[in-house]
Task: structure prediction
Amino acid sequence: MFSWMLVSKAMAQAFQKLNPVSLVKNPVILIVGIGALMTTLIVLINGFEGQFSIFNFQIAIWLWFTVLFANFSEAIAEGRGKAQAESLRKNKTETIAVRLFKGKTEVIRATELKKGDTVICEAGTVIPADGEVIEGIATVDESAITGESAPVVRESGGDRSAVTGGTKVISDRVVIRITSEQGDTFIDRMIALVEGAKRQKTPNEIALTILLSGLTIIFLLAIITLPAFFQYSLNASGNPGGKNLPLPVLIALLVCLIPTTIGGLLSAIGISGMDRLLRKNVIATSGKAIEAAGDVDVLLLDKTGTITLGNRMATEFLPARGVSRELLAEAAQLSSLADETPEGRSVVILAKELFNLRARDIHEDNSTFIPFTAQSRMSGVDIRDRKGNIRHIRKGSADAIKKFIQNNDGFFPKEVSETIVNLARQGATPLVVAENDQVLGVIHLKDIVKGGIRQRFAQLRTMGIRTIMITGDNPLTAAAIAAEAGVDDFLAEAMPEHKLERIRLEQANGHLVGMIGDGTNDAPALAQADVGIAMNTGTQAAREASNMVDLDSNPTKLIEVVETGKQLLMTRGALTTFSIANDVAKYFAIIPAIATALYAGTSTKGPLSALNIMNLATPQSAILSAVIFNALIIIMLIPLAMKGVKYRPLHANTVLMRNLLVYGLGGLIVPFIGIKLIDLLLNF
Amino acid sequence: MQMMMNGVIQIALFIAILVILTPVLGRFLARVFMDENHILKPLLGWLERLIYRICGIAKEEEMSWKSFLSGLLIFNFFGFAIVFLLQVFQRQLPLNTQHLAAPSWHLSLNTAISFITNTNWQSYSGETTLSYLVQMLGLTVQNFVSAATGIAVLVALMRGLTRKTTSTLGNFWVDITRSIVYVLLPFSLVMAIFLVSQGVIQNFTPYVHATTLEGVQQVIPGGPAASQIAIKQLGTNGGGFFGVNSAHPFENPTPFTNFLEMLAILLIPAALTFTYGRFAGSNRQGWTLFIVMLLMFGAGLAVSMYSEFSLNHVLNIAGNMEGKETRFGVAGSVLWSVATSAASNGSVNAMHDSLSPLSGMIAMFNIMLGEVIFGGVGAGLYGMVIFVILTVFIAGLMVGRTPEYLGKKIEAFEVKMAIIAVLAPSFVILLFSAFASVTSTGLSSLNNAGPHGLSQILYAFSSAAGNNGSAFAGLNTNTVFYNLSLAIGMLIGRFGIIIPVLAIAGHMATKKVTPSSSGTFRTDNWLFAGLLIAVILIVGGLTFFPALALGPAAEHFLMNAANAF
Result:
C-alpha cells in the first residue's frame, strides 16, 4: 500500500507541517501542538534550573509524536493522491501548442493558452489543453488518462467533439478551441483537491470540524477548572500546601480527552476518498460531489450500456404469412449491408448463421443504398435487376414501414402487427422489413441485459437507493426490460428534457439524484443532478456541466461512485465514534492517577484510587500510558483511514449495527487493553 | 426491607401512571398547538380570543425565528422588570401583611431572573421575605409564563423540524397564549382545588402566633399557597411558597399530595414527547425519546435507591432518614429528588444535602446532563433534541450518508448551534464553581468541609445553569457574589440554549425533507435510543467527570471507608 518513497517523503512533510500556518487548519491538532510546545518549554526551563524531569520530557516527546503522526497521516494521503495525479500532469506540462492567431500560426507553450484560443493539432502532437474540436476529424490516443489503449475518434460537431489536454492525436489534423483556462483543466482541479494548499474542506468535513472543536472547548473547560477543584480538595483534605496538578499533567489529560484520533485523521480520510475515486478512473471536480454521492438515493441510469449490453442484437426472423424465412433473411441482410451500426451488422451475421447467406457483391452502379435518417427512420437499398425493375428493400421501425407500404399502395398485414406488439411486450425491438408494397416480416432485435445487474440493483435497493432506467424505447419495451433488469422505475420514450424534468421532480420530493451522461443535450440534466458524471468520451458541454468525469466512460461507474461516497462518510463516522468512545478509558487511567493522593490521610492511597480499575502501576506510568496510547492509535489507524472502513451494500440498520459494534464498542474496550499493555511494558 | 418494598411499589405505580397519561395528555397538547379541535376549545376559546383582541395579536401572522426570538426576549425582559420592581416597592404595595421590607437589590435581581428563567432558585425563604402580592403577582405569574415560554420554544422547534422549505415557525404570542389558556391554567386550577382539599392552605390571613405545649413561641405562616404550588409543580418551576418547599406540611400535607405533586413534575414534560411524535408524524419518534428519558430516569432512581438503602459506614445505618420527611419515607423522598432534578423542577420534599453521596451525585448529574431527562416543560425536550442532533451527526455518518434527522440534513450550522447549547451551561457550571471553590468570596458561604462542600458549590451552579432551582442547602447563597453569579448562570443556562434552539428551528424549517428509505439512519428504534443515551452520558457526562470525581465520588469512597467531614 505504501512505497518507501512515499513514506519517507511523508515523514519529511510531517515536520514541514508543524508550521503554525498549516496547523491552524486543524484546531484539535493545533491544541496538541501548543500543549507540546508548552511542555517542552517547561522541560527546558526545569532543566536549566537543574530539575530536569524525565517524566515531563517523555510527555513532551509523545505529544510531539501525536502532532507528527497526525501530520504524517495527512502527508501520506496527499502523497498517494498526488502521485496518481502527478503522472497525469507530467504529460501536459511540457506541451507546446500551435496557436492560430490573427490568421497566422505561432508556436507557444501550452501554459500560455487562454480560454477561447484556437490551436491546430497535427498527427503525433499532444493536445495542449481541454477543448472542443471545431474543424476536422482525428483519432486520438487517450490512454494517458484512461489507460485504454484503443484510440478514439474525435470530430467536430456532434457528441464526440471534446478532447482532453494531455491526450495525443494519432492521425489526421484537427482545429481545437480551448475551453478551459490553464490551471483550470480537470486534471488541475483534481490535483488541487488533494493538494494541501488549495484543498477546501467539504461541507460535512466543516460540520465535523465544528463538532470536534466544540468537544475540544468542552474538555478545555473541564481541564482548566480542574486545578481549582483540586486546590479545594487539597484544602479540604487538610493539606492546603500540597502540590497542585502540574501543567504537563493537565496538558496530557487534555490531549488524551480531545478527539485527536479523528482530528488527526480527518483530512487523510477526505483525501483518500478522492484518491479511491481516482483509482476508479473518476475525476471529481469538488470534494463536495463525493459526499453528495453518498447521499444520492435516486439513480438515473441510461438503459444502453448500463443496464443492457451496448447493442441490440438480431436474434430471430419472423416472416409474414406466405413469406419464407429465408427470403426474409435475405431481404433483411440486403437492407443491412450498408448499415454500419451494430444492429445492422448483427442482422447480416444472423442471416449468415441461419441460412449461410453471404453478403453478395452488389454492384455499385445498379444499387443505391438508402441511409438511415431521423426523418425517414428506415434504411435500405434499391437494387435494379437486369430487367430494369427496381427492388425497394426497406428496414425500419413499424411506423416508418407502415408509411412506406402505404405510399406504395400496399397493406400492412394484421398478423405482423400482432407480432410487433408481442415483441415489444417482451422488451424487444421489432424491425420490419418490406420490399416494394409487401411486408416480408419482422426482425427480432433483442436487448441483452447485463449479467449480475439485477443483483446489483437489489443491493442498491437494500441501501435505500432507487434506480430509474432512462430509455428511448416505447413504454411496453421499456417495462419489459425494466422488469428483467429489476430497476424500480423507468422513463420511456425519454427525450433529454424529460430527464431534466424527472430530476427536478425527484428533487422536489426531497431526493438526491445521481446520473451519468455524455451528450450535449444531457448537459442541463447533468448540471441539475446532485451528482452528475460525464463520460470522458462525451462533449465538452456535458463535462462542464457535471461534477465528475469518468475517464473510462463506463456507465456502471455511477454505482461505484455512490459506494465510494458512502464509504468516505462511514469512515469519518466510525473514527469519530471510536475517538469519542476512547475517552472513557482515558478518564479511568488519568483521574485516579492525579487524585490518588487526595484525602489519603496517613495511607499511601486515597479514596479515589478506587477508580483505578485498570490497576495501573504508578500515577506517572498511568498518565504516560494514556498519552502513548493516544499517539500510537493515530498511526495504527492510518491504513484504515486510507482504505476506508469495509463497505458492504446492506440495509442502513445492519450497517450501523456492525459499525457500532466494531468502532463504538471497540472504541470503549480497545483503550482499556492498550493502556494496560503499555503500562505493563513501561514497568517491565 | 418492608420500607423498601413499599417504595418499589410506589415507584412502579408512579411510572405506570406516567406511561398511561403521556399519550392521553400528549395528544391533547398536539391538538392545542396544531390548532385542531379539542375539549377545552369550546370552553375557553373566548378567553383566547379575548387575549388576542386586547393585545392586538394577529393570530395568523407567522414569524421567522428571529422575530419569534425577539418577541420572546422582549416578553421575558418585561417579566423581569415587573418582578424586580414589585420586590423593590414591596413596602409601598398592598397585601404585605407582615410589613416585610424590600429585599436587597441583588436578591431581588436574582429572584426576578430566577423566576423568568423557570429556575426558581430561591436565595430566600418566601414566608420571611416576600409579601403575598409579590408572590402572587410576581412569582406565580412568572411560574405560568416562564413555563409557557419553554413550551412555545419547543413548539417552534417542532414546527421547524417538520415544516418543509419555509422560513417561519408560528407565532410566539399565540403559542404562549394557548399554552397558558388551555394547558397551564386549567390544569393548575384543578390541581390547586385538589391540594386545598388535602389541606394545602390558600388564604390572605396574617401569620398566626401560637404557643406550643412546651411553651415555645411559634409563628404559623399563611398565604395563597395552593395556587402557586399547583403551577410550580406542573410548570417545572419548583419555587416553594415556603422556604423548605414541599417538605412544608402546608405545601405537601399527605402522601397522596406527595404522590400527585411528584407526578405533576413529570406530567407535561413526558406528555410533550408524545406531542413531539405527533408533530413528527410518527408516534415512534416521540416514544423513542420518552423511553430514553424513562430509562435514564429509572437508572438514576435505581442507583439512588440502592445508595439510600445500603449501609452508611459512618452512621452504620441503612435507609437514613436524616433530612427526610417521616410523612413520605425514604422512597417518597428519593423518587422526588430524582424527579425534581431530572425534570428541572427544583422543588424538594427532602433536603438534598442529606442525601447519600451517590444519590446526591445522581441528582446533580441529572441536572448537569442538561436537564434533558424529561426536563423542564418544553425545555427538557428541546434540550434533548440538541443531543439528538449530536447523536444523529456522530452516528448517522456511519450509515454512509450526510446525517439526517426527520428527513432533514444536519449540517455545519446545526452542529455549531447544538455545540453552543451544550457549551453554555457547562461553561457556567465549571468556571463559576471553580472560581467559587478557591476564592474566599465563594468559600465563606460554605458550612460543610471536605468534598461535600465542593458538591454544594457544584450543585448550586449546576442548578442555576440547568434552570433547576433546587439547592443542596448548606450553602448560604444570599450574598452579592452568589446572587449575581447564579443570576448570570441562570440567564446563560436559559437563553444560551433557547437562542441556538430557535436558530436551529429556523434553519431546519428552510430545508427539504428526504423521504425515508432503507438507507436512512433510523431514529425511532432501540438502537437509536441506546446511542442517544451513550452520547448524552459521554458528551454531557465526561465534561463533569473530573469535578464529580473530586466532589461526590470522593465523598462516596470516603464514606465507604467510614470517613466523614
